[in-house]
Amino acid sequence: MQKDLINIAEELEGFDVIDSHLSFKGFLNFLRDLRSHEKTMKVRFLESVISSFEHRLPPKNELGLEEMEQYEDLLQWVYALLFPPINDERQNLWALSMPMKPVIFYGTNAFYHLLKNEKTGESKICLIDREEGGNKKINIEHVYSFILKRLYNHDYLPGNKLIHSYYDQVTGVSKFYKLDIDARFVDIIPKKGSFPMIGAELKARSHDPTFLEFLKEKLPLSLFRFEGISAISFTDITGEQATENIKNIILDRNACEMDSCHDRVIHSLKALAGNNEVEFGLLPFLKVNGKVVFSGETLFHSIISAAAKKYEDAERNYLAMVDKYFQNPKMIFFETLPAQDEKFNAFLDILRKNGVVSYALLPVFYNNKLAGAMEVYSKKEGILDHGVLSRVEQAIPLLAQLLQRSIVDFDEEIRAVVKENYTAVQPSVEWKFYETAWHFLRDHFWKGDASGLEPIHFKDVYPLYGAVDIRNSTIERNEAFKKDLQTQFDILLTTLSELEKGLGPGLLDILISECRKWADMLPGFLTTAEEMELNEFLKNEVGFFFHQLRGRKPDLAPIIDVYLGAIDESEGIAFRNRRDLENSIQLINKSINSHLETAVSELQQSYPFYFEKFRTDGVEYDIYVGQSITPDRPFDIRFLKELRLWQLRSMATVAGLAHELLPEMPDKLQTTQLIFVHSSAIDISFRQDERRFDVEGSYNIRYEIVKKRIDKVHLRGGVERLTQPGKIAVIYFNEREAEEYIGYIRELQTAGILKDDLEQLDLEELQGVTGLKACRIGVNFS
After folding, report:
1. What's the pLDDT tens digit per position in 5-28?
2. Domain assignments of the chain as residue spans, ordered by start
3. Long-range pairs, 505-512, Cβ under 8 A, ≥24
4. CA 218 to chain CA mean position, Å
5. Which whole-number Å values give the CA distances from 29 to 34, 70, 152, in the listed order?
6. What are the backbone dihedrals phi and psi of residue 85, each rounded to the nearest 5 degrees, phi first?
7. What is the pLDDT of residues 518-575, one digit of tens each?
8. CATH number for the domain whose boundaries are 241-443
9. DSSP character for 538?
């Protein structure tokens, strides 16, 4: 025990105002009260102790600091009575101080060793944590907490905890201590005879932010005199505080950048370990398409990644080790790296090259799933042992959240690259976009490569092309346009005639004449230039005139409004035919799209393929299937055959759906169905400018050319179009392809889906395309 005088916080608010005096009276009264309630043999012991105090103490209650040295025997009794005899004084951070003032005059050796600089005699720890911007009000708040509880039985919990950090120069890390003040032996004496009566006001103001200022006004410390002794103890809470700091870092993710957050976490882990020579690394379990990847941006402080990065085979070595470890994650610990170990030779070589002498790798799980691993290592001997690992293990549940956050952020970054540079992609090829995005991020980080994204392409895929067209849609659209224009001009001429009555003869003659000229031209053929001129007339001449006239002649507005209502696109009679046509087209396309989306979604379950639709007056689509699209599953040509049979069956279904919709259509439209067979595999690549896949290579372009030219192909030697309503046309180049599809047709005929009217036809030569053949079959609507 020691009895040197130490003041550990002279700068605290209220230090000079607090009237504090040393006395054993409060402690003696505490013992007497304890004796009066005791029923065991302790009574004799307590009587003996009380007698010793009464015999040794002077008649006066108050004692000076300089007098306390005379009563070391009594101070030892205080310590002995407050702690069990078996308590090890060498571990107890305990001392006695003046009441309500942190002026220490007696304490354990451990307490003085922690607080006092043995060379200078000055205090090493202050109640004000200057490095963390400590609050000088912390003392006065706790003084008022004591006053309110003792005098008014009112609980006042200060906002500041008595927790203090201390930089240990021996271990090189921060330690945290909780300060407990035992004020049971302190008496409060009023200087003016009585205490202020403010009990009712306390309840009303206790939650007010200005409560402390209220207390200073109503209960100034100058009203009180404090007599007795305070017992102070420090408790090492480094473990709890370090884990609390990690938790706060994780919860407040917006408070710091990822790099600085990890630095702070490592700092807290070192505090847990109790030595700055213990290093830590965090390795999130990152995967792209189910495969482990290596990202230096997320492997913070990792000795494995730092070591691997120094060598050319960084990624290969790292991935081989990490992939093997994550297949069977368990703790690896070398208190001293062995000279040889067949299982870990390559791994140990990397550690030795970087001066590591002790190493541990601990798996970290999040919701029972592997989130990554924590490295614990040291480059000094005798530092890392099982005790260190035991202390840091308490932080693993929190580190699991941090590693999981790294995984989520990494996945989001990959998705962001895909969305920014591509488009919404189908699951069948999504893996390729993620892989490319990952390569882009990896090369940018490791090599500083700013060349951009690598091309995305798939080799040797089999194409299937289908087109469902609305028969004569262009003709139907032109007819609807002409009928609506005729209606519009009829109403326009009637409107102009009514306006002429109100404006007087002769004023509208030129406009009426121009209208009649255009009305006479409508039944004939209008060139593109004439259509543009007509639109210009209706918009800029007629429209502008009506707008001006409505403003000048409000009384004529009802006449003009009849015309304006007729040309309203959503409800006007002059757009009725075009609306009916669009509604019919939309009805067919909605039914086709719904069927294709459902069917394709079900087919993808059997074997993934790429499916892309194109909007025309009907629907066109491309299908690409092959090993390169699904590299993790073996491709069998039988699936291609199943897909071709489905395509034929699907075309029959689409034709039937369109036929069933005829009663619901304002315009009775019919569909034609076309399939183009290309038995050779082709290569496709993603075009970023158009955000879609296209064929690659001069040979493969022939496939695309044929697709674009067969939609209106005729039979050889005639004017009949190949595609006809209620029929499916299959275009091919060679007889082997025909035999395959005729086999599918026979199967669907047996099922009653197709009619028994198969035709095998030769087709006209197209520009750059010769030798096309086709078969055509009717769909059985019944």
Report:
1. 877 665 565 567 888 899 999 999
2. 6-236, 241-443, 474-569, 580-778
3. 511/541, 511/542, 511/545
4. 52
5. 8, 21, 21
6. -60, -30
7. 888 888 877 888 888 888 888 888 888 888 888 888 888 899 899 999 999 889 999 9
8. 3.30.450.40
9. I
